Amino acid sequence: MNKPRFALPFLSALTLTILAGCTMEPKYDRPALPVASDWTTSKGVDAGKAQDIGWSQFFNQPEMKQVIALALDNNRDLRVAALNVDTARATFQIDRAALLPTLDGTAGETAQHLPGNLYSTKATGPATYQQYSAGVGVSSYELDLFGRVRSLRDKGLETYLATAATQRATQITLVSEVAEGYLSLAADNDLLKLAIDTANSQNHSYELTKRSYDQGVSNTQDLVQAETTVRSAQADIAQYTRQVRQDVNALTLLVGAQIPEKLLANASLDNNWSFPATPAGLPSDLLTRRPDIIAAEHTLKAANANIGAARAAFFPRITLTGSAGTESGSLSNLFSGGSGFWSFAPSLNIPIFDGGVNQANLDIAKDTKKIEIANYEKAIQTAFKEVSDGLAGQATYGDQLKSIQLETAANQRNFDLSQMRFKGGIDSYLNVLVAQRSLYGTQKTLISTKLAQLNSDITLFKALGGGWKK
């Protein structure tokens, strides 16, 4: 039996055909930046990169760092994001493998018994035949002449990269949410302590007023006003007690595990909180810093690649099926000379009429790309807004906090003077109550402003892509 001589020329032609294959993907051009080229404020802007500042450097309070570390180990959303990356990676490997032929090895035995009453066995009687075979084969390998398979591979790659970037965005969001949750707990702890102290002070004042009233010195209005302030403070205690418990519940959900009590017990904004200055750079830097923008661009590239696959569907598809091996009636002669066999079965599929399915798929692919362009631009605009808000907070919260501190100090002096004038018989107790309420109000405002300033710093850090590195 002559050995097949077509193999080497065929393989050479096949290789050249694959290498010469074209692609139908449109050329990718990054959309223009849909925002201004610089921030609305330049305060705090320099050439540094927020993403180079690790979260453990930025959040430098020991207890908060430990809570964040617990969240990174246990948060379920982060686990799901990591598993999504693994799934996308495996899907890409499947898409990439489609570019190569699948080679399978086969081995088998066939036994057949024929009765003696058949025409072919009348002379010999009943007979049993055995046949052995071994070989390799390629099944339905598509020649990627028009880039359909490569476009699907590119789509899979971009989807995988988008998923990986989304995982980073999930971590950055988690780190900032845990930090903000911890600060909310600290602020509510301070508000609860303030409410308790104020209630104790007002309750003492109420007892004095009631005693004075019983002696006929104070009037009914003074007594009622004093009781009103006590009840108001008691209501605040109930409110802030509830908020503290809810803050702990929210943090526990974010962390995904029970948080040791020692990490939360002393949370307070009085612990000299401050975060390092965050370098903003330029708006164009966000394209490589923000993982959500990176993910949006990879999703856009995946949509662009899908157009190539949709275009290629209009063109013929050539698939190859073939096998080669040995075959013999006895196992001992299976690999003897002359036992070889081969088969080669190319097929051509030419789209003629599909009821408009291919055109509809192409229209969908083009519209999907337009949608992803809009999503990409929206991601950039959102990032620009978040950074601008953070910079505005960085530029103004310091002045606001200083003014409220001065206002609180002035209210404290006014309250002290009102008490002195009341004790000296110059003013009524109503003036003391008014001064006390003003002081209590500015003290609460001071705590909420401190919280807002720290949250603004966290927002800026997150908006600039910080929080991925440790």
| Structural classification | alpha+beta
Strand % is 5-15%
End-to-end gap: 69 Å
CATH architecture of the largest domain: Up-down Bundle
- CATH topology name of the largest domain: Outer membrane efflux proteins (OEP)
- Name the overall outline: elongated
The major sheet is characterized as: 5 strands, antiparallel
Q: What is the total domain count?
A: 2
Overall CATH class of the largest domain: Mainly Alpha
Looking at CATH, the homologous superfamily of the largest domain is: Outer membrane efflux proteins (OEP)
Computed over alpha carbons, the radius of gyration is 38 Å
Number of strands: 5
- The residue fraction in helices comes out at 55-70%
Task: Please write the string of helix (H) and strand (E) elements.
Answer: HHHHEEHHHHEEEHH
Helical stretch tally: 10
Uncertain segments of ≥5 residues (pLDDT<50)?
A: 1-13
Average per-residue pLDDT, rounded, comes to 85
